[in-house]
Design goal:
The protein is an alpha+beta fold. The protein is built from 3 helices and 8 strands, in the order αβββββαβββα. 32% of the residues lie in helices and 25% in strands. It has a 3-stranded antiparallel beta sheet with strand order 1-6-7, with no helix packed on it.
């Protein structure tokens, strides 16, 4: 009996390895150098949670270990130019994720959604971005970034409804362009794979 159970377990492990290998092949096709990620975490308490530093000022925040949302929950990302010269990123969620966003944020009012993005690096022919404090950009004194904790968005009294989230990122114009284009390229590729 033990020999049969041992054989069954080995066969099960072999099948899992084959299926896992197939999934990994599909996943690697989603790792393109022009793609960007968008990961949203719920703010956590100091105990039992991860500590991150958000924005140019490196404001310390605690986040839950598992993301609440990723780019897989989105329909699209957009760049929004405001009349005062500032800019924001607007994320539009898929239907199921939009309902989850509303439900989760109603229950967590007063906390923050902490947003992280990994995005394509600057191209070899691009000049370094020189930020201007008037537009909220940090002057380029460090190496160009390809990832950042972009924002900690306060959850309003009634949560986020309407299926979208709009926030002002601590990022340069050039970084926001790379983020929005990269997220949308990834979403386009993902939607093609789903068909």
């Amino acid at each position: 009996m033990k020999a049969r159970l041992f054989l069954f377990n080995n066969i099960l492990l072999a099948v899992a390895a084959i299926l896992g290998g197939g999934c990994a092949t599909g996943a690697t096709s989603m790792h393109d150098k022009d793609f960007a990620t968008m990961t949203i975490f719920m703010e956590g308490r100091a105990a039992d949670n991860l500590r991150v530093q958000v924005g140019w000022n490196k404001t310390p925040m605690y986040i839950e270990a598992e993301p609440a949302f990723t780019e897989d929950d989105l329909n699209k990302a957009a760049w929004v130019d405001n009349a005062d010269g500032t800019y924001e990123i607007q994320l539009t969620f898929r239907e199921e994720a939009a309902m989850k966003l509303q439900m989760d944020t109603i229950m967590q009012k007063g906390r923050h959604l902490v947003i992280f993005s990994a995005f394509p690096p600057e191209g070899p022919n691009k000049e370094p971005q020189k930020g201007a404090p008037a537009t909220g950009e940090k002057p380029a004194t460090e190496l160009p970034r390809s990832s950042a904790w972009l924002a900690a968005v306060l959850i309003p009294q009634n949560g986020f409804s309407g299926g979208s989230l709009r926030f002002k990122p601590d990022a340069s114009h050039e970084e926001v362009e790379r983020i929005v284009l990269g997220v949308n390229k990834r979403l386009t590729a993902m939607h093609k794979m789903e068909r």
